[in-house]
What we know:
Strand order of the largest sheet of chain A: 1-2
CATH topology of the largest domain in chain B: Rossmann fold
Number of domains of chain B: 2
CATH class of the largest domain in chain B: Alpha Beta
Order of helices and strands of chain A: HHHHHHEEHHHHHHH
CATH architecture of the largest domain in chain B: 3-Layer(aba) Sandwich
Largest sheet of chain A: 2 strands, antiparallel
Largest sheet of chain B: 6 strands, mixed
Order of helices and strands of chain B: EEEHEEHEHHHHEHEHEEH
Helix content of chain A: 55-70%
Low-confidence stretches of chain A: 1-16, 333-338
Radius of gyration of chain B: 18 Å
Strand content of chain B: 25-35%
Number of strands of chain A: 2
Strand order of the largest sheet of chain B: 6-7-8-3-9-10
Oligomer: heterodimer
Helix content of chain B: 25-40%
Radius of gyration of chain A: 21 Å
CATH superfamily of the largest domain in chain B: P-loop containing nucleotide triphosphate hydrolases
Low-confidence stretches of chain B: none
Number of helices of chain B: 9
Shape of chain A: globular
Number of strands of chain B: 10
Number of helices of chain A: 13
Largest interface: A-B, 37 and 43 residues
Amino acid sequence: xxxxxxxxxxxxxxxxxxxxxxxxxxxxxxxxxxxxxxxxxxxxxxxxxxxxxxxxxxxxxxxxxxxxxxxxxxxxxxxxxxxxxxxxxxxxxxxxxxxxxxxxxxxxxxxxxxxxxxxxxxxxxxxxxxxxxxxxxxxxxxxxxxxxxxxxxxxxxxxxxxxxxxxxxxxxxxxxxxxxxxxxxxxxxxxxxxxxxxxxxxxxxxxxxxxxxxxxxxxxxxxxxxxxxxxxxxxxxxxxxxxxxxxxxxxxxxxxxxxxxxxxxxxxxxxxxxxxxxxxxxxxxxxxxxxxxxxxxxxxxxxxxxxxxxxxxxxxxxxxxxxxxxxxxxxxxxxxxx
Amino acid sequence: xxxxxxxxxxxxxxxxxxxxxxxxxxxxxxxxxxxxxxxxxxxxxxxxxxxxxxxxxxxxxxxxxxxxxxxxxxxxxxxxxxxxxxxxxxxxxxxxxxxxxxxxxxxxxxxxxxxxxxxxxxxxxxxxxxxxxxxxxxxxxxxxxxxxxxxxxxxxxxxxxxxxxxxxxxxxxxxxxxxxxxxxxxxxxxxxxxxxxxxxxxxxxxxxxxxxxxxxxxxxxxxxxxxxxxxxxxxxxxxxxxxxxxxxxxx
Lengths: 338, 251
């Protein structure tokens, strides 16, 4: 770098392209994939049932339940914000959707009923997203506070609507989670398609590009003519929408809307993103890594049960993984930005 | 120059932030192919002035006139559309985005057909054109996928200037473009300014480095405490007299 002063403007070739091996060592994706495979093999060798096809289906379904929240959180965090309300929003959506379906369950066919439920859940989630967006872009609360508000109010409201217990009484609702092909239920398939769609949006579209730009340097984004208020608002609305869909997902899996599923889902979603190496300061981070973070959490969550560890230890282990992930990526210099 | 129509004109522009009066009654005209130095001490209102011209915020009073038409920018995008490009002091680029992405930020090239309608970008095309256009304005940086955070300070500045020159159709505003640059690199920047002038652009050059200002500009506007205190051809100034005017020691 000391050649800077003597050369004319640019001296590019000093930074030569790293070779494949160097890239692999530095690549977070490679590290996460490695950890994923090691964990899968570890649990599998400790208990061979973990390798069974039935468990593969379980893993995929558990992954599907978390991944949309992880995607939502990835958008938000890359834009430089945070959304603490995704889990509680899923809970409200699930509970409200269940109440609506219960109301029509006597007169409507099952398919119409489930489609209605999906629409209601998506709408409820979107409404919460709009509330977040308004609090952030018009009231000008920082995202942490704004979504803390909706998290707290949302958790309470879900309990109010449901009366504290699960909202069931929609017979046959779990039907969508049974059918399908290979290890995938239709439900998983839909989730995975939505997941891929949003990944493509973040990586390849102008909307995604602006999301990165705003997180990386809000001033530059504004100076480039990006409508900041509209874009940030859309990100929180999308986050709410996805959380609403997750509410429906859990309704179909459990056959009931549960007001209490949201509590730790917020933190799980944020954990996926952090393990995926996305900087909480915004602007950087890959689309794939949070998905791998989500897969790692899923495998650990299921695997601990297979090796007879009390499920209560799950959160403790997750904490350890986060610390490890952040430590490793910190040391390998992947996160150094300047 | 004065027989031409001004490409940019400010008429009695004032700007206040609450009780703070940042600009008071600023008026000047700028012509195509003219390089204007904008100087003043810290807090003289230079930054506020360029932000008003580039649409970052609206003036409290007065008019910004471009090619004879009164324009009231609603956003920086409007000013960009009108061919006014601004290079901000340090923060015009998004460090986590690639060079190509920065060059085309806000002007992304879309894919043809349905994909484009869905918002998908043609990144390859953008990288290619970014390299070409930067080359055209005399700047060669490692184009492609490298992020701006991986560049040196000089290279970042080169990219920022290249972007401004590439997109400017009428006016290009350079806020401290030679900051943090070595002597040789500063000369490169001044050459880019001269090239822009050749192309008939009007350049507003903001700098604290008075020898650079005296070297490259045709005219100098001196600001103090939010007002224009002197607007005269560069040949009227020496470093000493310019410094005196900026500080207000010689009236």
